[in-house]
Design goal:
By secondary structure, this protein is of the alpha/beta class. The protein contains ten helices and six strands, in the order βαααααβαβααβαβαβ. The radius of gyration is 16 Å and the shape is globular.
Length: 208
């Protein structure tokens, strides 16, 4: 029996990827790096920040920390008027009527997660932050922690993700997972293990 809905944050609850792309472009420009949408999808989307700057620039330690903080501060400046993915509020309302709980499982830093959730006027009963549990997506641990905190088996939840990395994380925890087509190709999401793909959350109502 379905008891919970679990959501990624960026690119899932709202289409924030264009703002992240712009913030990355600005902070990486002084290093001579240009980030186009394809590079963003392949090397940035769905990954933890320390992995991103180590991969792109070979940075670690204090310099990496300063770059990450600058990027995330710029993202929050840009992310002032966010709109939810169409159908999100309707899905959450219907889930509430059916007695389902819900939560957010994200690689985003705490400050960003709080900013986005506040902008969307959302207060999830559960928030799992990869930075607080030591491993991020695509590792299954964030979703395993979510299940443990809710006291649920994997088959009692559904997960919604927008990146192959996120899909692999949720599927690795045994959760039936659906891919949102906000940034990645349907074929890539299905290859990562998504049961199906959705253009918005209105389509997800049929899953309840």
């Amino acid at each position: 029996m379905l008891r919970a809905l679990l959501f990624d944050l960026d690119g899932t609850l709202a289409d924030t990827d264009p703002l992240h792309l712009l913030a990355w472009r600005e902070v990486l420009a002084p290093y001579g790096l240009e980030v186009d949408p394809e590079t963003y999808r392949r090397r940035i989307s769905g990954r933890l920040n320390p992995e991103i700057v180590r991969d792109l620039l070979g940075l670690k330690g204090e310099e990496a920390r300063r770059l990450i903080e600058a990027k995330e501060a710029r993202f929050r400046e840009l992310a002032q008027d966010l709109e939810p993915t169409p159908g999100l509020y309707g899905l959450l309302e219907e889930a509430g009527r059916r007695g389902l709980t819900w939560g957010v499982v994200t690689n985003a830093p705490r400050a960003n997660a709080r900013h986005v959730l506040q902008a969307l006027r959302l207060a999830p009963p559960l928030l799992v932050l990869a930075e607080e549990i030591g491993r991020g997506k695509p590792d299954p641990l964030p979703y395993r922690v979510a299940l443990a905190r809710l006291g649920l088996r994997p088959e009692e939840a559904l997960a919604f993700e927008d990146s192959p990395s996120g899909v692999r994380s949720a599927v690795g925890a045994g959760i039936p997972t659906y891919g949102l087509l906000t940034g990645h190709e349907a074929a890539d999401l299905r290859a990562a293990g998504a049961q199906s793909t959705l253009k918005d959350f209105w389509e997800a109502l049929a899953l309840l």
